[in-house]
UniProtKB/TrEMBL annotation:
It comes from the Eukaryota. It comes from Halcyon senegalensis. This is IL34 protein. One of its GO terms (molecular function) is macrophage colony-stimulating factor receptor binding. InterPro entries: IL-34, IL-34_sf. GO terms for cellular component: extracellular space. It holds the Pfam family IL34. GO terms for biological process: positive regulation of cell population proliferation; positive regulation of macrophage differentiation; positive regulation of monocyte differentiation.
Length: 177
């Protein structure tokens, strides 16, 4: 993938996550601590509350493993994770009134994803494998109402964190304690 610098082409492998990506995902990891997800995404919602999302908006570790087995690049997987996870936060925010106790928390998550979006604005869908570009298009397409499923808000953020740790833990040298 080529970055925005003229004449500079970086071949990105497992080890290459931009310092900005590592810092922002580390901040996200702090915001997604279990206690916070439990409080803001479960306790502050009605029992068994579900959010309607597209099938493509649920990204689990098994999806990443399957794509890795198809030799999809780590950069493309991180690009996919970003789009799916930021969309999940948007889906949760859509159901919250401003006075809801989880509003500020999801707003802060959204701001971190917006900052991460700046890192990913360097990429174009043509820079990533077709399978990932197609999934990203599906995540952002509004006309797939029939392909929806109900998911708990906490489950969306649980998946977000698990996949983020899979994709960033090694290249960003996190201690996963």
């Amino acid at each position: 993938l080529a970055f925005g610098c003229p004449g500079v082409v970086a071949v990105l492998g497992l080890e290459a996550a931009a310092p900005g990506e590592c810092e922002l995902t580390r901040l996200l990891q702090d915001k997604l601590q279990y206690e916070m997800r439990l409080q803001y995404m479960k306790h502050y919602f009605p029992i068994d509350y579900m959010v309607q999302v597209q099938y493509e908006e649920v990204l689990r570790p098994s999806n990443i493993t399957r794509l890795r087995n198809r030799t999809v690049s780590e950069v493309a997987l991180r690009y996919l994770w970003f789009h799916v996870s930021s969309q999940a936060v948007l889906r949760i925010r859509e159901v919250l009134p401003e006075k809801h106790p989880s509003w500020k928390y999801t707003q802060e998550l959204g701001q971190l994803f917006d900052a991460l979006g700046e890192e990913y604005s360097k990429y174009r869908q043509t820079d990533v494998e077709e399978v990932v570009a197609d999934l990203v298009k599906l995540v952002h397409s509004a006309g797939t109402e029939s392909r929806r499923k109900a998911v708990r808000p906490k489950a969306l953020l649980d998946n977000c964190l698990k996949v983020m740790r899979m994709l960033y833990g090694t290249p960003c040298e996190w201690g996963l304690g």
